[in-house]
Amino acid sequence: MKFRFDVPGMTCGGCARTIVAAIKGVDEQAEIETDVPGRIVSVHSSRDSAPLIAAIKAAGYDARAG
Known about the structure:
By secondary structure, the protein is of the alpha+beta class. It has helices at residues 13-26, 49-58; strands spanning 2-6, 31-35, 40-44, 64-65. Strand 2 and strand 3 (40-44) form a beta hairpin. Helix 1 packs across helix 2. The longest helix has 14 residues, at 13-26. It is globular, with a radius of gyration of 10 Å.
């Protein structure tokens, strides 16, 4: 499934790398694209959105399905 998350606290490449690592911790096979200026994370994953959002939040960032 394809998900789009709004991550308002993602302000730099370091933030994006942290978020990607958090998502990969839930689904190693996830395909992830980050748009730092737009503060958007797009994820293609076989997992449901809830554990992906939980992983982003556990990494210290707010996330909302967009």
